[in-house]
Amino acid sequence: MNHAFNKKNIAIEPMDVKDIDDMHKKFLLNTKSPVFAETLRYCEKVANSNSNVLLIGESGTGKEVAAKYIHLCSQRASNDVVAVNCSAFTETLLESELFGYEQGAFTGALKAKKGKFELAHEGTLFLDEIGDTSLLTQVKLLRVIETKKFERIGSNTPMLIDFRLICATNKDLEENILNATFREDFFYRISTIAIRIPPLRERKEDLMDMINFFLEQSCIENRREITYIEPEVNEFLYNYDYPGNVRELKNTIDRLVILSEDGVIKKDDLPILHSIVRVKPSSTSDRFESIVSLKEFRKNTESKYLQWVLNQVNGNVAEAARRLDISSRQLFNKINEYGLEK
C-alpha cells in the first residue's frame, strides 16, 4: 500500500499535493508499509496544531526526519526548524545553547549569542534525545514551555517567543519516571501527542526501495558505478534485522559501495557482525529430559530466555525491554513472576 497524502484531511497553504509528493521523495517517506503509512498519517494530522509532539522510537528510525516532515506540513513551514541534540551537551552547555547569553554573562562570553529558543521563534524547535536531559534542565524547559517566555543567561529581561515543540527519545520515559530520572509533569507537557516511529524490521515492505535509493546516492557521493552484487549480499540485505535501523542500512550500503572493486559488491565486504547475528540456534530436540505440560515448558523457556537477555545487557531493564519489544512494566512483571536477577 503506497502512502497517499489526502489533502482533504489537512489544510496546508500554499502547499499542494505535488509539494507533499516532493517532500516524500526528499525525506524518503514513500512507503508500501501500512505501519509506516499510519505513522505518516499521524504526522500530517498533527502538523497544523500547536500541540507538543513526542516522537518515540529506536535509534536510527528517522525521528528527526519525522520532525522535519511535521514542520514542513505545518503553517510554520516558511520559518526555521531548529534542532538540538540534548545528549551532545553537558547540562551547562545545553542551557547556554537553548537560552543564549549576554556579553560577559560568564568567562568566555565575549559577545551576546542568540539561543535556540530565539532562533526557533515562529518556527519549530526539535529537541532530540530529550530523555538525556537532567532534572534541573527539565524544570527550566518546563517553565519556558508553559509561559513561552525566557531570559538569556546574564539577562533579567524576559523575551516572549512563539514556537512549536517537537521532542524525540529512544528511551522508556515512563521507566525513567519510575526511576526518578525524569519529571512526570515535564513528560505530560511534552507528550500531548505521542507518535511511534516504527523500526525498519517492522516495515520490510520498504526495504527494496530504500536499498536502491541509498545505493544510488552512495554511488553518486563516492563516484562509483556498481554493475554486479553477489547473491549472498542481496540475501543479507533483505533478511538482516537492522538493529540500527535506517541509519545502519545507509551505513552498510556506503561500506559496500566504498569497498567494491571493478563495480562488484562482494560478500566478503559485508559487516563482520552479520555472521554472528545470522547464526541460527542449534537444535534442542536432544536436550529434553521429561514430558511436561506445554504451559510449564513455555514458562521455563521464557524464564531462561529473559534471564539470558538481562545478563546480556548487564541488568539494564529498559534496554532489555527495548530489545524484547515489550514495555519495561511488562518486563518488571515477568522479573517478579519468575524471580529473575537484574
Structure, described:
This protein is α/β, with parallel strands linked by helices. It is built from 15 helices and 11 strands. The strands form 4 sheets. A 5-stranded parallel β-sheet has the order 2-5-8-1-9. Strands 3-4 form a two-stranded antiparallel sheet. Strands 6-7 form a two-stranded antiparallel sheet. Helix 9 packs across helix 11. The longest helix is centred in the C-terminal third of the chain and has 19 residues, at 294-312. The chain is globular. It starts with 16 loop residues before the first helix and ends with a helix. Mean pLDDT is 85; it is low at 1-18 and 275-286.
What's the tally of helices?
15
N- to C-terminal separation? Answer: 43 Å
Please bin the fraction of helical residues: 40-55%
In order across it, which strands form the biggest sheet? 2-5-8-1-9
Rounded to the nearest angstrom, the radius of gyration is 24 Å
Low-confidence stretches: 1-18, 275-286
Described by strand count, sense and barrel closure, the largest sheet is: 5 strands, parallel
Q: Name the shape in a single word.
A: globular
Binned strand content: 5-15%
Number of distinct beta strands: 11
Order of helices and strands: HHEHEHEEHEHEEEHHEHEHHEHHHH
**What is the average of the pLDDT values?**
85
What structural category characterises the helix and strand content? alpha/beta
